[in-house]
């Protein structure tokens, strides 16, 4: 009997929130962020600014709430500007508001709308995944039942049964605190 190599993967759901949010603010300027690292009391985040129609060099400025200039960068190509910042979990939500300003070589200004970061930064990562595998043979052929569960994490939590090649075979998003139960027939081999 050939045994499929599968494993469970649990991850935070992204309903309404994604690992990277991008907002088109004007026809010329974009602002986005992505959480790079999660620490016990903080997060390392990269904020990107991009004005694809502006000719280089472009001077990008990252502004925090209350008109505070956080950083400035000159980009000599059409690439985006990246700003890496550390945020602690004690940061007030009003301090997690950012915007970008782009200035072209001719002095034309383009400002983004405000980017508000909060919910995603405080999500609790999933704890160690526990999986129970049960092999059954009930007359209709061999079956495998897999029960996956994490003891903690911010909902919604998505469980995926992933093959060795990275393909997703099955996926579930059970109610908070409930396990994901997967069941499938094993191929009959002579």
From TrEMBL:
Residues 27-116 form the Ig-like domain. Keywords: Glycoprotein, Signal. The keyword Calcium does not apply. Residues 1-19 form the signal peptide. It comes from Neomonachus schauinslandi (Hawaiian monk seal). The gene is C15H17orf99. InterPro entries: Ig-like_dom, Ig-like_dom_sf, Ig-like_fold, IL-40-like_Ig. The keyword DNA damage does not apply. This is Protein IL-40. Gene3D superfamilies: Immunoglobulins.
């Amino acid at each position: 009997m050939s045994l499929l190599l599968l494993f469970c993967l649990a991850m935070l759901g992204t309903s309404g929130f994604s690992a990277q949010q991008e907002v088109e603010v004007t026809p010329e300027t974009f602002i986005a962020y992505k959480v790079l690292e999660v620490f016990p009391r903080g997060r390392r985040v990269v904020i990107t600014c991009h004005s694809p129609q502006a000719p280089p060099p472009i001077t990008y400025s990252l502004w925090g709430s209350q008109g505070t200039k956080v950083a400035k960068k000159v980009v000599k190509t059409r690439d985006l500007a990246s700003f890496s910042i550390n945020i602690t979990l004690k940061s007030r939500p009003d301090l997690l508001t950012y915007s970008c300003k782009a200035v072209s070589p001719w002095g034309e200004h383009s400002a983004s709308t405000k980017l508000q970061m909060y919910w995603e930064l405080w999500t609790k990562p999933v704890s160690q995944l526990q999986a129970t595998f049960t092999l059954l043979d009930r007359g209709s052929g061999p079956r495998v039942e897999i029960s996956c569960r994490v003891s903690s994490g911010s909902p919604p939590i998505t469980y995926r049964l992933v093959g060795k090649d990275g393909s997703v075979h099955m996926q579930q998003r059970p109610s908070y605190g409930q396990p994901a139960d997967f069941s499938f027939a094993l191929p009959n081999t002579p």
